[in-house]
Hints:
Elements: H1 4-28, H2 34-55, H3 59-83, H4 88-125, H5 141-160, H6 167-176, H7 178-207
Helix pairs in contact: 1-2, 1-5, 2-4, 2-7, 3-4, 5-7, 6-7
Amino acid sequence: MPGRQLSQDLAAVRALVADGRDRLREATGDLDQFSLNSARRRLVEVDEHLVMAASGLGGWSRVLVGTPAMLLAAAATALVARALGFSTFWVVACAWVAAVLVEYPVRKWTVTRLAPGLGRRRLARAAVTVEPSSPRDLAGLPGALAGARIRLVSAILRASGSRHWQPAYLAHLAAESATFGRLAAADTLLCQAIDHIEHYLAAETKEQP
């Protein structure tokens, strides 16, 4: 489960990203352009990853939620199989199959339904006030989003502990921890959003007489 400090850090990053989305909408409206559409989509996905990271529902949490459902399904199936006169082998086999079939939907429900709501509540409790970036022109947006990325990277490093700032260990955390995996994905998407906005600005500059 993410600590209070990480929740506060992610709430601040989320507020900066939301301000960036607002700023992009103010500057471009609904302009249909590949780089802008890509940046908009990635900023939305950054927010989704931050919410999921704040939920704290990693692999062990899903196991704890799924295990009772598996046991209940296995027990109910075993009782029915015994009542129907199945042999011990078939009772065990049916119970095992029922447990497996129940575990995946429960685990999926935990990720898709429970985690986002939990993450949003935690971030709302840790919400901080972020001053809108100024000026609001599009040219300064990459720099503003870069500031959000700096804060995100700082949050990742703080959460990992100062003894574990080696790239290899951080890569291991991203691969093994659901929370750090989400944060790493958010960092990548934020970088891509910045690149797309910079690409759009560069193309606009070339087209100007």
